[in-house]
Amino acid sequence: MDLTRTFHALAVSAFLFSSAGLCHAQEEISGDNDIGRTLAHDPVPEKFSNNYKHVLNKSGKHHLTSAITTALTPALYIIIFVIGLPTNGMAMYNLITKVQWLPSTIFLINLATADLLLILVLPFKISYHLLGNDWLFGEGLCRTMTAFFYGNMYCSILLLTFISLDRYFALVHPFLSKRFRDNRFAVCSCSVIWVLVVISMLPFLLQRQSYPIQELNITTCHDVLPRKLQSGYFFYYFVCLVVFGFLIPCFVTIFCSVAIIRALMVSEQQFGKAIRTMMLVLIVYLVCFTPSNIILLIHHSEYHLTDSSDLYLFYMICLVLSTFNNCIDPFIYCCISDEFRDKVRSMILFNKVKTGEGSRKILIHTDSSSTCRPLAPVKCV
């Protein structure tokens, strides 16, 4: 009898102990901890995933429901899409079919390709923000869009850096550059750039990017990340990305621009076109890439140190600005390639002439009282 009571007591104690542990685990999982960039949480075991809740703080709710992220941001993306799609599409067509393939042409074709890849996923980004930051297209497409988004920025940075280097060697060291400045060098350089960009985007493709927010009844894409992932893994990742993907290329581009302008001024050559090209490249760096990378680094550093994200809205606006290079790049094509500019100009003039001839033929056809033909050398009576 005593043995039975003892066994019963041990069983009850073990049950109570395991129940307490389970309740504690569930409480830890579904607690009021912030999650991600504006929020964060520890990874959750699969057996507790049904009880896992992503809880936003007041700042996070404000960020995801504010007019900046649900109205202004998609409006700016729509402008970029409307301008960038036709201009980069026309640029790609002309560069591939109508312009002689030189090293600069190959770099420009790759730059247009990077711009078009981003523009093709912009409708998903626009829909996401217009629906109140609610992602409807699945985890796989969310990872792909995020990788395309950042990949375009850093691929464009590296390509613009190599374009500046190509201009530098062509104008400052023309005899030295003849040994290696050819189409093969340009193709190899672009291949290395694409490989580096794809490798650098793997963290976005391998880590989960979409998280459901039950309080707001939405599923976010890249706007919400677990706290440990945000303040640890992604902090160090973005530090390396900004340093090697922006700061070093930026210094190289500035050096090339200053050296080109100095060399042309010393030789007393006409350097208006070269200056316009370098100014456009520097404007892309100054307006599009510099604010986004600086705020990106400060934002993640702030979260890494204090678990706060007061700069999140500025971070979002700067990311939008980083995509405006899609609208500026076509002007760089015109400045670098005279042949490209002439082809675009001839296409525009041809369309105007064609339209004028069509209207003229219609007028002549409908004027039955005239006895003149279109090319007759006599006056109409």
Task: Describe the 3D structure.
The chain is mainly α and 381 residues long. It has one domain (71-342): Rhodopsin 7-helix transmembrane proteins (Rhopdopsin 7-helix transmembrane proteins, Up-down Bundle). 74% of the residues lie in helices and 2% in strands. It contains 13 helices and 2 strands; from the N terminus they run ααααααααββααααα. The chain has helices at residues 2-29, 58-65, 67-97, 103-130, 138-171, 174-177, 183-200, 202-206, 227-266, 272-306, 312-322, 325-336, 338-366, and strands at 210-213, 218-221. Strands 1-2 form a two-stranded antiparallel sheet. A hairpin with a 4-residue loop joins strand 1 (210-213) and strand 2 (218-221). The longest helix has 40 residues, at 227-266. The N and C termini lie far apart (132 Å). Mean pLDDT is 74; it is low at 1-36, 38-52 and 358-381.
Compact description:
By secondary structure, the protein is an all-alpha fold. 74% of the residues lie in helices and 2% in strands. It is elongated, with a radius of gyration of 29 Å.
Q: Note poorly predicted spans.
A: 1-36, 38-52, 358-381
Share in helix: over 70%
What class would the helix/strand composition place it in? mainly alpha
Looking at this structure, what is the CATH superfamily? Rhodopsin 7-helix transmembrane proteins
CATH architecture: Up-down Bundle
Number of helices: 13
Read across the widest sheet, the strand sequence of neighbours is 1-2
Topology pattern, helix = H, strand = E:
HHHHHHHHEEHHHHH
How big a fraction of the residues is strand? under 5%
Shape: elongated
What's the level 1 CATH class?
Answer: Mainly Alpha
Q: How confident is the prediction overall: mean pLDDT?
A: 74
Any idea how many domains?
1
Termini separation (Å)?
132 Å
Radius of gyration (Å): 29 Å
The fold-level CATH name is Rhopdopsin 7-helix transmembrane proteins
Quick one: how many beta strands? Answer: 2
Query: Mind summarizing the main beta sheet?
Result: 2 strands, antiparallel
